[in-house]
Amino acid sequence: MLAGRKYRLRLTPEQARMAEEFGSICRSVWNTGLEQRREYRRRGAWMNYVPQAAELADAKREHEWLRAAPSHVLQQTLKDLDRACRTHGTFKVRWRSRARWNPSFRFPAGNLITVERLNRKLGRAKLPKLGWVAFRWSRHPGGEVRSATVSRRAGHWYISFLVEDGVLTPGHHAGTPVGVDRGVAVAATTSTGNVHDREFTTGGERIRYRHLQQRLARTHKGSANRRKTLASMKRNMGRVTDRRADFHAQLANQLTTRHNVVVLEDLRTKNMTASAKGTKAEPGRNVRQKAGLNRAILDKGWHRMERAIRNAARSTGTEMVLVNPAYTSQTCNRCGHVDPKNRKSQAVFECTACGHRDHADVNAAKNILSAAGHAVPACGDLAVGRSMKQEPPGPREAVPVQLASQLVGIPRR
């Protein structure tokens, strides 16, 4: 199967300047091609990759600055634009702003890329026009390189290899099904009673980022101080993003290794985190509360968690199922009674019909599992104050403590 391998580059000043130039040229080609497509659509006509690639070849004869970047890199930019327009629509594809877009470009010809290991910590790759570039050897690529993408994030350059590792997805998995409830107080809670959570931002980083935002508000657009402040903000948030990605990778590995089916709610995170400001004619309500909820959802990374689980499932043969999220937190898993008053608080669930008590997130995770057609195991009676397992533990298994005070899975660092 195809897999990605990402490494941190160690570019020389000249190579960093060339990479910045390649990214700027690709951004110009993207914006020019997008404007051309939109103009054709306004006239009722169509424009696709083939004529744009031919026009790009003519433009390179007239404009010398276009010849600085490799031809197949610019052609790949037009291919990415064509795919984006076909998927999202021409007028919904975004421009690549110089201030907000991180430089990125792809070398699609894997036969022109050579990867070598120099020593225990360093490797190098030969890229067209960039030459040999050094990178930190954190793992072996483990397959034939199909393409390479160079990108910059938080002030550092990275290279991502798309490799064919020759691994086939297993057809059988010996695990059991599990339901996962995503939340804002706790990142993920499973139907087996395990709670997975982690703080991604430290208190010092929050204070530092708030001060940087205040400093940014006092700078002028285009000034050197503004560029320095934005670079500091990106470095600050880059560490948070890395922690979140690490958490999602570990969680996805645990779920897909232990379970043959992972059931999630089919959540439209983009719609759920839309602003509630409204318009001047119809202003929104509870705008500050909605903004706080949006920040909490984005901080836990619901969509990235789903993507991580889907990606890890390819290696283990685990099936990922999405179910309707309606009333999963208000339904009693024991008797099926639906009532908003069932959920007494964020963590306590008590059915108003049968009196069943459980942890609210675990009850929701059980409902998510049941919605996919899988029954909750008999040993999964996780009422507050009762044992989580009825059978005796195995030689490597210990009986957990009460769920309310339990955090399982991702270690804190």
Automatic annotation (TrEMBL):
Entry-linked InterPro entries: Cas12f1-like_TNB, Transposase, Transposase_put_HTH
Pfam short name (any one): HTH_OrfB_IS605
Residue ranges occupied by any Transposase putative helix-turn-helix domain in the UniProt entry: 1-43
Record-annotated Cas12f1-like TNB domain positions: 302-368
Domain Probable transposase IS891/IS1136/IS1341 span(s) in chain numbering: 162-274
Similarity comment: family membership: In the C-terminal section; belongs to the transposase 35 family.
UniProt protein name: Transposase
Entry keyword set: DNA recombination, DNA-binding, Metal-binding, Transposition, Zinc
Organism: Streptomyces boetiae
Organism classification: Bacteria, Bacillati, Actinomycetota, Actinomycetes, Kitasatosporales
